[in-house]
Amino acid sequence: MRVLVVYCHPVPDSFCAAIREAALEALVARGWEPRLIDLYAEKFNPVMCCAERRAYNDRAPEDPALAAHLDHLRWAEAMLFIYPTWWYGLPAMLKGWLDRVWAKDVAFALDGEDAKITPLMTHVRKLGVITTCGAARWWSFVIGQPGRKTLLRGIRALCAWRCSTFYLAHYRMDTSTPESRAAFIRRVKRKLERF
């Protein structure tokens, strides 16, 4: 299975980087073909300009800088997002990637006068999220986990009808220990063995 791993963290030696490496190893060990997008390493521009926004409902993005990203989306059969949860949601870089890349005539079509959305990512049959979160689990639930909902409800709605999903979070990251981080890496590997 072809798995697009979308990674977003500005610090090269972060715990998210360790998660990324463990995830890639687990996917390769399973015999799957991962492809990595490292948004910060490639200096992805998350800012949608005025002209791009004006054309958003009319056609697919035409910015040459997005071409490889659009190809990655068309290639993927599964997707795995790895990022830190900041202020209960996605980092701005990742949100900007969704805004600019998951676009009309790529991720969805707008049909008819009522602009009915038709999913175009139906080749994606699995969707996973691995994140770190400074807040406690219970407080994240109270807030409503906006990042989780964006990916596992909003983005999933554009994927295959029976797209399977999972969500793993290391809560209380700010007070984590070497033991809690090692245990989480083991959870990541176990989850990806069954993904």
Globally, the shape reads globular
Tally the helices: 7
State the name of the first-level CATH class.
Alpha Beta
Number of strands: 7
Q: What is the CATH architecture descriptor? A: 3-Layer(aba) Sandwich
Using only C-alpha atoms, the radius of gyration works out to: 17 Å
In spatial order, strands of the major sheet run: 2-1-3-6-7
Amount of beta strand: 15-25%
Domain unit count: 1
Sheet of most strands? 5 strands, parallel
Mean pLDDT value: 94
Helix content estimate: 25-40%
Distance between the termini: 11 Å
CATH homologous superfamily title: Flavodoxin domain
CATH overall fold name: Rossmann fold
Low-confidence stretches: none
Structural class, judged by helices and strands? alpha/beta
SSE ordering: EHEHHEHEEEHHEH
